[in-house]
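[job 4471] stage=fold_predict status=RUNNING
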Amino acid sequence: MNNLKLSSIDRFINWWNAKKEDLSSFLVPVISVIIAFIIAGIMIKLTGKSPLRAYEILFKGALGKDFQEFISLRVAGEGILKGAILTLTGLSITVAFKAGLFNIGAEGQFIIGAITAAYFGFKLNLPPFIGIPLILLIVSFVSGLYGAFAAFLKVKRGVHEVITTIMLNWIAIHLVENWIVVGPFNILRYNPRAVLAGTPYITDNSRLKPLFSGTRLNATIFIAIIAVILIYILINKTVLGYEIQATGLNIEAARYAGINISRTMIISMFIAGALSGISGACMILGTEGRYPGVFRPGYGFDGITMALVGNTTPVGTFIASLFFGLVRGGATGMQLIGIHKSFADIIQGVATIFVAGQIGIKYLLFKIGEKKVFRGKEVISGVS
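[job 4471] inference complete, writing structure tokens
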């Protein structure tokens, strides 16, 4: 019996040593999220509340109390909607990462996309099947240019994209909220009796209508899924995708191979900006209906977490975004027992830290079976 157990363990170690490189890319984010929940649970306990009760409320608030409520999407729809918006900004970060760029400016591109959608959603009154795609196309172009500008400065002037994208975030916020929304595109210019701050409401034809009654879930989820498929194809199945990945892996080797590095970086950031802009547009067309007086939902910054936890892959980003979207959707219910909904942000932040510092988790994972590799009856020691 003992021999049989030992044999099973040895087979597992052999299998693990052969697969650990591939599996670690999946296990690191999962373990990071579990650790984040444990740490957040400890923090909840320190406040005198029950972590188990808090998480029970969180997941019931995210998914519903039973299976029937879950499939009705009256509860889960809100989390899925948040996840869809996060997916788009997460993909924005992912595309930039693939090209070796750190797009901190997703928030600014998100805001530029949102105000552009608010303007054309108000001005255009075309049939929805023409008007909405046209608005998204315009938003993609405008936000794409905003993102590409950072890459242009990098390739032409050597300005690091982290610096420029951070500055472009502030430019977008102050340009939109301190001038456009309170000035030339303020609702009072069109409706002097308005009591709410912000821009005029978009036309009914420009709205992304809820898919089901009792939920705000709308076509944003389909837009996100289409974006995931397109970005997956772009990165893995096209010449441009190969050039983007080659540039991100080794810029000098890519240049030596004849890849136009400058063009690749600018196109990558254009795509990244377009994705963040569409995310902002979906919020205006789907839930807000106008650009409010202050609009800083932070989805652009959260996209960094989604990309990292998703291992900078389109499908991984989608899964991570849906998960954290549901967590956000359910976190509101935790306030019923006196726990602020920002605990969802803590979980997200801690998970990001552990994914970003994944060397520690990988080290522990790789220690499994480090000393022994079995090949048939042969035992080799000291192989890592």
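[job 4471] summary: The first strand starts at residue 372 and ends at 375.
[job 4471] exit 0
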